[in-house]
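anyone else get weird line breaks when pasting these?? whatever heres mine. first is seq + C-alpha cells for prot A
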Amino acid sequence: MAGLHGLGNGGPTYDRSTEHLATGDKRRIDFSQVTEREIDKVRRGRDPIGVVRKPEKNGSFILRLSPTANEKVRDARLDSARSKT
C-alpha cells in the first residue's frame, strides 16, 4: 500500500478455507465479504469504498491539528475539576 511505509508486513497469511464459523462470527463474516468485494473492485480497476476522487462532489474539510493564536484551548479535565469544587 502506498503511504504506509515502515509498518512491516501483516505477518503470515492463514488458509481460512477450512474454518468452521458459527452464528457468533457474523460480523467477521460480514467484514470478510466486504473486504473481498473491495479487493475485487481494485482488481477490476475501480476505486474501493472510501476513496474520494472528486472532492467538489463529495465535500471536503480542513482538519486543524493545533489551535490558532486567537483560539482558547479548553481542557475537559479542568472543567470537570472546577464543577466539583
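and prot B, same format (seq, then C-alpha cells)
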Amino acid sequence: MEGLDACSQDSTDKMLRMNARADQLLDEALSLEADERSVLAFALLNSLDGDEEAAAAKAWQAEILRRKQDLRSGATIAVPWAEARARLAAL
C-alpha cells in the first residue's frame, strides 16, 4: 500500500508543479497586448485540433489577415452592423 501512496504523492506533486507553471504562463499571457493574446490563443487552440481542423483553422487565419489588410488599406470599407443585416435580409 505504501507504493500506491508514494505514486499518488508523486502525481499530486507533479500536478501542483504543472498548475504553478500554468498559472505563471497565464499571468504572462494576460500581460500581453490584446492582439498578442489573440495570436497566442489561436495557436493554442490550433495545437488541440486534428490535421483537418488545423488546415481549416489555418485557412481562416489567412482569410482573417487578408480581410484585416483590406480594411487597413481601404480596399474594403466597413459598414455598420444594422446596414449589413439589412443587406443580408434583402437577399
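btw re prot B: The two ends are 71 Å apart (CA to CA). The chain has a mean pLDDT of 84.
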